Amino acid sequence: xxxxxxxxxxxxxxxxxxxxxxxxNRDRWSSFRGERASGVAEGHNLPERWDGQKGVNVKxxxxxxxxxxSSPIVWGNRVFVTTAISSRGGDSFRHGLYGDGTxxxxxxxxxxxxxxxxxxxxxxxxxxxxxxxxxxxxxxIKASYANSTPVTDGRYVIAFFGSQGxxxxxxxGRLAWKKDLGVLNAGAYDAPDYEWGTASSSIIYKxxxxxxxxTQGESFLIAADIKTGKTIWKTARExxxxxxxxxxxxxxxxxxxxxxASNFIRGYDPLTGKExxxxxxxxxxxxxxxxxxxxxxxxxxxxxxxxPIFVIRAGAAGDITLGKGxxxxxxxxxxxxxxxxxxxxxxxxxxxxxxxxxxxxxxxYDLK
Length: 368
Prior knowledge:
The structure is a single chain. Helix content is about 0%, strand content about 40%. The protein is built from no helices and 27 strands. The strands form 7 sheets. Strands 2-4-5-6-7 form a 5-stranded antiparallel beta sheet, with no helix packed on it. Strands 16-17-18-19-23 form a 5-stranded mixed beta sheet, with no helix packed on it. A hairpin with a 2-residue loop joins strand 20 (about 290-295) and strand 21 (about 295-300).
């Protein structure tokens, strides 16, 4: 039997806006974890419980072929999803807590596709094949070949498929441009033969599409023009493989592109790619996305023994790494060791910082 995954949308009691480059905050969830990657959706009156199998508080359910860890995004009356479909069928991934770093051996030809669905009914409006062929790298047995969440500004939908490339389509599914970023071998830092696949999602800042590509080889950040795909800047990074999505802090005139990675957490000028600051002391494997509130930037990682949480003051400059025995300095408001999250991104709501471990332990801190 060919395995498929289903996308379900919980019933929400508000009207849907028409498709437009300008929609209200209530009618968009345009990127990984929503606006500013906050993971917070206010004012939607969403149900506390829903059950996809029994149909409780589910408005519609649409079957999408293939396998994907990417999240849906919403713009007005459309929902966009990505997937990778194996030609051999029966595509699946393993799940659970165990330390196996094995890569999948599925190298069958795949189709990498972008879907647009009607938000009210779940009807598939269009589907676009972005790439077709044999995967250029392996994936982790717990992962898929479509791990990265798409992003949209209401004009273009951007889909990053790792070694298969970066793609921009318009809101009707017509290809605007595509960009080959090379073979991106992201795997275990201490076992170069392991291939786990990419997971960092692309983001949009002003007229730029920005992608973080940390691999076993030459790691880099790249910014492309959203209309043409032309490279605006590309910055080399001395980094181990990482899987976190970058984020742009933009408050009161201070703008920083923040990346989570193993050698250093870094801040950049998003318009030029120039490094502004760096912070050492992170884990050897990093996946969470930086999040912000006020003048504070929170970055965490969960690989032990470090597994740190850093709360960084915006406006840092130079090397802000903590000295031995320090938990704070001029630019680090506070930090904790061995309490960071391995996969989940922390969440800030009000003055509280929430951090969830893979083992299900939920910590809450006073952010200040």
